[in-house]
Amino acid sequence: MKTINKILEIKSRTPFSLKLSCLFAICTMIFQHSISYANIIEPAFLKRELGVINIAVAGKVTDANGNSLPGVTVTIKGTNTSTATDLEGNFKFSNQVPENSVITLSLLGFKTKEVVVTNANFLTILLEEDLRQLSEVVVIGYGSQERKDLIGSISKINADEVKQIPVGSFDAQLQGKAAGLQINSNTGIPGEGIFIRVRGTTSINASNDPLYIVDGVFINNSSLQTVSTGGKATSPIADINPADIESVEVLKDASATAIYGARGANGVVIVTTKRGNYNSKAKLGFNATQGIAEAAKIWGQASGPLNAELHNESWINSGIDNPALNQTYANRPFRPVSEGGRGLPEEQQTYDRLGDIFQTARLQSYDLSLQGGSSGTKYYFGAGYTRQEAIMKPVYFNRASFKLNLDQKVNNNIQVGITNSISRTFRNQARAGDGPQGGMFQTALLVATYLPKFNADGTPAKWGPWDNLDVLLNNYDVKTKNIRYIGNVYLDADITPELKFRSSFGIDYNDYNESEYWNSLTLIGASPTNGLATAAVTNNSTWLNEQTLSYRKVFNGDHNFGLLVGNSLQGDLIKSTFAQGTNFPNDSFKKISSAATRIGSDSWTESKLVSFFSRADYNYRSKYYLQLSVRADGSSRFGADNRWGYFPSVGTAWRIKEENFLRDVNFISDLKLRGSFGITGNQNGINNFASRGLWIGGVGYPDNITGGDKPGIAPQQLANPTLRWEKTRQINGGVDLGLWNGRVALELNVYRKYTSDLLIQRPLASSTGFSSYYSNEGEISNTGFELNINTTNIEKGDFQWQTNFNIASNKNVIEKLATPINVYSRDWLRMEEGHPMYSFWLYKQLYVDPQTGDAVFEDVNKDGKITVEDRQLLGNAMPDFFGGISNSFTYKGWDASILFTFQYGNDVFNMNEFFDMAGGTRAERFASANSTKRWQNPGDITDVPRFTTVGNNYRLEQNSRLLEDGSFIRLKQLSIGYSIPKRLLTRFKIEDLRLSFTGSNVLLFTKYSGLDPESNVASSQNVQGLDFGTPPQPRTFQLGINLTL
Amino acid sequence: MKHLRYFILFVIASITFSCNNFLEVQPQESISDESTITNGSSAETAVRGMYRALASNSYYGSTFQSIGYLSGDNIQWTGSQAIAGQFVNHDVRADNGSVAAVWSAIYTTINRANNVIAKVSTLALEPTFTQEKKDQLVGEAYFVRALAYFDLVRLWGTVPIYLAPTLSINDNHGKAKSSKEEVYAQVLADLKAAETLLPQTTNRIRATRKTVWALRSRYHLYNKEWAAAESYADKVIADQSYNLIAPYSSFFANNAVATQESVFELSYSATNTSSHRGNWQPPQNGGTRQWAPNSEFLALINDPLIGGNRSAMVSSTSDGRWYGNMYYRSPATDPAYVIRIAEIRLIRAEARAQQGKYEDALKDLDAVRERAGLGASSADGKDEIFLAIEQERRLEFAFEPHRWFDLVRTDRAEAVLGLSDRNRYVLPIPIDELKVDPALEPNEGYL
Fold first, then answer.
1. Could you tell me the pLDDT band of residue B3, with boundaries at 50, 70 and 90?
2. Which residues form the RagB/SusD domain (chain B) (predicted)?
3. Are B139 and B253 within one domain?
4. Which of A411, A462, A767 faces B284 most closely, judged by CB atoms?
């Protein structure tokens, strides 16, 4: 009745409302009801009922530092009566609390506390932060949960632990930090893309990367790079400053990811950036690090004389093998100059080029942050700058970023906020990958050591298909500037304490600006091109609008029920403009406007997604859990027949610890069984118009010789109106076990993912005039387990030692694939039914005949010839298992941590050796120091065949001899820090001052003969395990200072 | 009051518009295949697209041509890709990427021609789209299709024939290979159709009736129909628009295009470049020198009494490496020479010699020699004349796709190249094609 009166009161005061419909009135009622419920204040008095004394209780809740804690749930134990603390941490019960009853105070991230209420005094209650995992808050899709209530399989990574590893993108820092998250760095170039998989590879043509969500914005993570860096690509994730990140959650099983529907199949990485706290004083932080990076190892090269000797040997051997070549000792290339030769081998000089390209690189980074809040406003401001030189000249990566997160309470029920981050990255790039021209690494690595750097006349010498290294070093000009904005605005409204509404609008905008200029001294710009410049601007914008309505209520104290419904709209647009100029007047002109020949083009592509989603969860006394979710996604990418996809999931958990029979077993602090099943989808990475039948323009041809090109059109792609999503079914079983009050926390997950309807570019007979069309046909499975163990080994006085160990294994099988697909040049990799992805397709070298020195290959079909039919799938670039182990120690002001990461069972094809030890088939090439292992005399036992350009020894390019075990253990990070005692700092009004030393990639234990088993030649998602022309991950050492005022 | 405001916000935020309209996104760079060839001007664009396929890098732009000369005896492989070396060594494997690329490029060209033939023929006439124009466009498509099947049959011998456009994924596969004779019959049928439809004009970069005559002359030569070969050559040679221009380099040097030498060449622009030069030119000139003239050929071409002024087609770097210099332009707009008047002259020489007209044969041969700055041939007697013509063709077309086909067609591959395995006279059907189309049989001797 009182409530109705209030409504009337408001109505009479508000002309606005008079005009509103009946619907509005009802809603207002709901609002009002909630307000009146919370705000009614009545005088406290004692009331005696049936002999029980009811008293009024009020109090204030603070944390250990005396900061007031708002939002603490205060419940009178054994009743439904509860309230929450206000902004100042105050709570109050009217005369409804039976004397001597117990009130329970709980808040996420804090240990729950029970207090006996004796009389109506004012209580001051202190809540202790809970550092143990159980009450850790874990971000889930569209919400958060305490770890003890988790049903899904989610890894949470504390970003602070690894953010000093000097790489461009935060995802590259996560290696070994989360069970089941496989990360290979691919290259030592900062800011380049990495290989990341959550529970294996599910797709061939669609993306295999997880969905990245930063503060609710689904961000782009595919590179916008258009200039060639030899098959490599930059990482858009590097635009995010790791210093601004609060936490990273990796969602792995279907009950966690199905709420993301068509984008959940490869897992979800949720990034939460830092925000301020209400009622906290401004805290200014400053971090600076300075360091160096170096190559831990470089390739061994044969000296000039040895290189020349090898050349002669191959020349003569080839002449013996094929007399028609007319290659004999007499006309060997390295014979005395007097005989018309190039001088004897021993007269050759050795010219080192590798030393010219590697450098001890400098690393620096600076971060400034300010965070705090008043009763209604909280803020986080961050500014950062980092500059990382690569160990290879002249490459470096710069990032300047700026962040502002702001939240404002409008009143007790409404909160609005904004998240902004803007960054500018600058990259000085060079080709560290495949391709000779402009190939920085190849030029340094592959030119024979006896070849001088300068011609006799002093001009720079160019050899083979390569540039002159000095020319490249002095004239390389490939630069990329990138501006990235990621932000969103949101509104949260508590319609009732149980019912919350949220609306948000987010944007990810990326302006990627590239330029390259090759002057006439470089091969690319040499006469007759006379200078070549390109400029490309690529614009990617993604916008996202979401509404969610969530409801949570505990019924009768036992039945905890939650419901979420929501919708989202998303648009994604990529526009790109490209221009190229050649024939410059001279090398001083560098802009396309000065070029005599100019070409240009632009491109445009767009996709849209509409989604509706819902999740319901229920638990009975935190004992039995059930969660159902469903998402419907409609995508513009697919034909009308299959535009909508539906992705359901179900998850259950049984928290056995809460059962009576375990409740009193003290050494078991937690035991929970989990199970989930669900379906997720994948549509990322495929062409926006893949389902359509299309003709292209741009294939012009003249009508007559004077007219120049006139427009032309041609068929481009055949339609497949039934094209649809890739679908991944995933089943997951898990156990969470806590022992001795959480000192040992173990999480084990076993899963099987089965992906069907793979988007395959199905090869089509070329007689159709098309090479392939998109169709849903392949199937891939991933089966594996993940184990994560956290232990607190010692916790005594000031000393603490904690360990995390995680290990995961994933077995990938291509279950169905109509036609094998070959990957990369020379088809070194091949995807074939019944075999895992990233399998190598090679001729198996059995041995080198000790008598002849010739390689003997396995003749699989026993037809007496070595043909393509004898190629086999041998080895695999994926590890059998991988993981990490980290230990952290704190003692008084000291802290230390050490992280090892490992992979076991992955193979690497040593493509450097393929080019460097080519037996003479590649004239004027650098020879690897390993050439000394070649067969030379009858009786030699070796696996390196006799040098010759004839026969299969080196002409068979897919030789299993070059496949090596790439297992490794890496000392990924080592850090030691010292915090200056507070008593020395207070005088200077400094709150905290920490000095630190960090080393990364400090040690590498591996049998692999190359520099780094994680190297990979290309960024293409189907290429792994080909090591070529790539600088290794650098070994770095940094000193840092963290200052908090 | 303030609560109402949020309620309104809620209502606004909840507005969702029609999802299906929202999800309709039309491409802007490509167009739907239902709305392509609908009128005269779109028909013209489709014909240009067809020529672009003919000129594509996997076809006349480079790869097809390279198979023609790499498989002969003039070129050595000097690059990093072993697949080019397989042609030089006559050890071509079914997984050779160039073989697959050429197969696919030729059928792509055929599909574009089939689209023109099927769709342009049914278009209504307009004031600007006359019957004459329509005939010309369809005639060009017949010519291009004839050339494409001609190239297929001389590379692979037996290939499947498809004459309708591919409109869905079920079209144009699953058919067994036709015999060599059937493919040649199809070439002739298309040439005849083109001949009646095309106008008798001169256009050196597009097909006209005269281009058809030239190709027919070559067609009959390959089919040993000497009289027909001679008479079609006569028609072309009699035309005043085609002349041997001296010196030899005139038709390619100094950025020349569409000279009187050319009966048919393909045109390139800064936008549509040819990859030919990249394979020939040394790194100093921005190429990769995948292949280069071999020493035996260099000795011939640089001999003033044998090569004459044709030595302009080779050049050497400062460090003494020889390279082919017929394709050299930047941007790479070197034309692809499909039929030159020199070829028609030598076709007639051969056809005449085959018919015993040795005097006349020598006249044609000497015309080509004269242009190269050489004296009259001293060849005497049937055998010597044939050898002289063969030698002249070897040098004249060293960097054009003739030498290999000539040796196979005249059954001289064993004598000249030492290639006794006759199965190697044709290429293997690409292994990937055999896998996706079970109706295809591998060529004999491969697999």
1. low
2. 331-415
3. no
4. A462
The DSSP line for B76-96 is: EE-SS-HHHHHHHTT---TT-
In a domain, B21, yes or no: no
B253 shares its domain with B381: yes
> Angle B196-B200-B205 (CA atoms, 0-180°, nearest 5)?
105
B291 falls within a domain: no
Q: Does A437 touch chain B (CB under 8 A)?
A: yes
Asked if residue B136 and residue B264 are part of one domain, the reply reads: no
Q: Taking a contact as any Cβ pair under 8 Å apart, which residues of chain B between 324 and 383 contact chain A? A: 328-331
Nearest to B103 by CA among A769, A827, A867: A769
Asked whether the beta carbons of residue A766 and residue B14 sit closer than 8 angstroms, the reply is no
* Residues of chain B neighbouring A436 (CB-CB closer than 8 A): 80, 283, 288
Helices within A243-384 (DSSP H only): 254-257, 304-321, 354-357
The residue to which tokens 């409404």 are assigned: A414
Q: How is residue B142 written in tokens? A: 């017949």
CATH number of the domain within which B179 lies: 1.25.40.390
Mutual angle of helices B63-70 and B97-120, in 10-degree steps: 130
B95 and B164 together in one domain: yes
- Give me the number of domains chain B comprises: 2
Q: Cβ–Cβ of B29/A603 closer than 8 Å? A: yes
Q: Is B111 on the interface with A (CB under 8 A)?
A: yes
Measure the CA–CA gap between A99 and A56, rounded to whole angstroms. 9
CA distances for B290 relative to A922, A960, B60, B66, B336, angstroms: 12, 26, 17, 10, 18
Kindly indicate the confidence band of residue B16, based on its pLDDT and cuts at 50, 70 and 90.
Answer: very low
| Nearest neighbour of B52 by CB, restricted to A14, A714, A820 | A714
Q: Cβ contact (<8 Å) for A410 and B431?
A: no
What DSSP string runs through A871-920?
-EEEEESS-SEEEEEEEEEEETTEEEEEEEEEEES-EEEEHHHHHHT-TT
Residues of B within 8 A of A528 (CB-CB) are 285-286, 328-330
If you measure CA to CA, which chain A residue comes closest to B282? A465
Are B428 and B362 part of one and the same domain?
A: no
Residue B394 lies in a domain: yes
The sign of the dihedral angle between the CA atoms of B159, B162, B163, B166 is negative
- Alpha-carbon span A399 to A141, nearest angstrom: 30
* Domain enclosing residue B364, as ranges: 226-282+302-328+340-410
Residues B428 and B405 placed together within one structural domain of the fold: no
Lowest mean pLDDT among A11-15, A122-126, A318-322, A725-729: A11-15
Token pair belonging to B428: 């293997």
The reply to whether B181 and B134 lie within a common domain is: yes
pLDDT above 90: residue A128: no
Per-state percent for chain B, helix, strand, coil, to nearest 5? 55, 5, 40
CATH number of the domain where residue B367 is located: 1.25.40.900
Instruction: Match 């055949």 to its residue by tokens.
Output: A718
In this structure, is residue B10 part of a structural domain?
no
Cis peptide before A460 (omega within 30 of 0): no
Question: Rounded to an integer, what distance in angstroms lies between the CA atom of residue A884 and that of residue A786?
Answer: 12
Cβ–Cβ gap B431/A868 under 8 Å: yes
Q: Which has the minimum average pLDDT: A13-22, A313-322, A648-657, B344-353?
A: A13-22
Residue given tokens 């209530």 in the structure block: A149
Residues B164 and B274 in one domain: no
Q: Which among A413, A635, A704 is the nearest to B205, CB-wise?
A: A704
Out of A569, A604, A699, the one facing B52 most closely (by C-beta) is A699
How high is the pLDDT of residue B46?
94
User: Is residue A442 classed as helix, strand or coil in its secondary structure?
Assistant: helix
ipTM of the complex: 0.92
Reference A973, options A41, A154, A321, A162; nearest CA is A162
Residues from chain B that touch A413, judged by Cβ atoms under 8 A, are 3
